[in-house]
Design a protein that fits this description.
Distance between the termini: 14 Å
Number of strands: 18
Oligomer: single chain
Largest sheet: 7 strands, mixed
Mean pLDDT: 88
Number of helices: 12
Strand order of the largest sheet: 5-4-13-14-15-12-16
Order of helices and strands: EHEEHHEEHEHEEEEEHEEEEHHEEEHHHH
Shape: globular
Length: about 400
């Protein structure tokens, strides 16, 4: 018997290629290495992406990062926002609340950190044990008798026992094997633009959110920094076709939607036009009947993006990575491992994705009536007891990982 508790003949050292060095990829690499795999991570960016919008680690995912040994450092990096203020069309305050009351997080347990901080911690865990290929990506995948033959965009060629796509909502790995994203994408009726801008308003450790029906503008001050995360969100019954692919069209579309808006929105639009880190996209989910094909599987947003409207994308990525690695550590046959992964995680994914249908999108009302109802609900939160935990926070019990001491 090996230290993992599995018979010696089961513990064949697998070679695994992971596409994507964001959150799901390095997390999966950590657990696969713990189970004895030889892991390579390929990332199209030239280096780790630092900064990024704040993300949440909640519920079951907290146990994952605790088992990885990085929970204390994540708590040190916790943003600890103190106030979430909602404004009306004129910029007057509707209500000001603790952020946890709004998003359903559990104070003292869940954490909110910069995405780049989490990515850096995950990378630091595995950089000495995992081969990282930055500035490259998968070009083609071909199943063969030996495994998966991979040709990289750099021209190099290698064969791996398994390949995992952890390359985000717009996954190239998924498209290569399963077809165009459109057949798996569920559009949720919103478009958004995120970027950074100078903190000319003197905001500190707070989120300010302005709403009119179908439009929202937010400024997020992380700590006392002189830079703000800005967010412009708007409702569209159908997704725009050309704008997401054209930066100038993106800027023009957003500027047109927010023309004539009050509060500080004109300044946000001006900052958006000048931003060199602008990211525009549609709010949507990835829903697939299966997350694997042959020797290739998907994890995180590539398989089951829940959308930012749920606040659960990062937690799903961490939990999914753990469960996929656990299944591969438990089953020598990859087909059985992938089947177990889907069987054990799909209900948890469905519960998280359903948050957009059970209140997860109420922060962005599309009608005057819905906006009035939302504001009334927020005012009630000032006097009512704290909201109960979201079901998704405790919907999955993690099995013990075989490689843990």
């Amino acid at each position: 018997m090996t230290p993992t508790g599995l018979p010696d003949d089961v513990r064949i050292r697998r070679t695994v290629l992971i596409s994507g060095a964001g959150v799901a990829g390095p997390a999966l690499a950590y657990w696969l290495h713990r189970s004895g795999c030889a892991v390579t991570v390929v990332e199209k960016a030239d280096a780790l992406r630092d900064g990024g919008y704040p993300i949440d680690v909640r519920g079951t995912a907290i146990e994952v990062v605790r088992r990885m040994g990085i929970l204390p450092r994540l708590r040190d990096a916790h943003i600890d926002s103190r106030r979430c203020t909602f404004l009306d069309a004129d910029g007057d305050t509707v209500v000001s609340l603790r952020p946890s009351a709004v998003v359903g997080s559990v104070e003292g347990q869940d954490v909110e950190v910069r995405r780049g901080d989490l990515a850096a911690l995950l990378h630091a865990l595995v950089r000495d044990d995992v081969d990282f290929l930055f500035g490259d990506s998968i070009d083609t995948l071909d199943h063969s008798a030996r495994g998966v033959d991979v040709t990289f965009r750099s021209g190099r060629q290698r064969t791996f026992d398994l390949v995992v796509g952890a390359d985000g909502m717009h996954s190239h790995t998924r498209e290569s094997l399963f077809g165009p994203e459109e057949q798996f994408h569920r559009y949720l009726g919103y478009c958004f633009a995120v970027f950074t801008m100078p903190n000319t308003l003197g905001l500190s450790r707070e989120l300010v959110l302005w709403n009119t029906p179908g439009r929202a503008a937010a400024l997020y001050a992380v700590g006392d920094h002189d830079e703000l995360h800005a967010f412009l969100n708007f409702h569209r019954p159908q997704p725009p076709l050309a704008a997401p692919r054209n930066p100038d069209a993106q800027r023009d579309l957003v500027a047109g939607v927010f023309a004539g808006a009050g509060w500080e929105v004109p300044g946000l639009v001006d900052a958006m036009r000048e931003a060199d880190d602008l990211f525009c996209d549609t709010a949507g989910q990835i829903r697939m009947p299966h997350w694997s094909q042959g020797r290739v599987a998907l994890v995180g947003d590539a398989a089951y993006a829940p959308s930012f409207l749920t606040g659960q994308g990062t937690s799903l990525a961490l939990v999914g990575a753990y469960m996929l690695a656990h299944s591969l550590a438990t089953h020598r046959d990859h087909t059985a491992a992938f089947a177990a992964y889907e069987r054990d995680v799909r209900a948890f994914v469905a519960t998280n994705q359903a948050l957009v249908d059970t209140g997860g999108a109420t922060l962005f009302p599309t009608t005057a009536r819905a906006l009035e109802q939302r504001d009334a609900m927020l005012r009630d939160l000032v006097t009512l007891p704290s909201a109960p935990l979201r079901p998704a926070h405790s919907a999955l019990t993690l099995p013990a990982f075989a490689a843990l001491p």
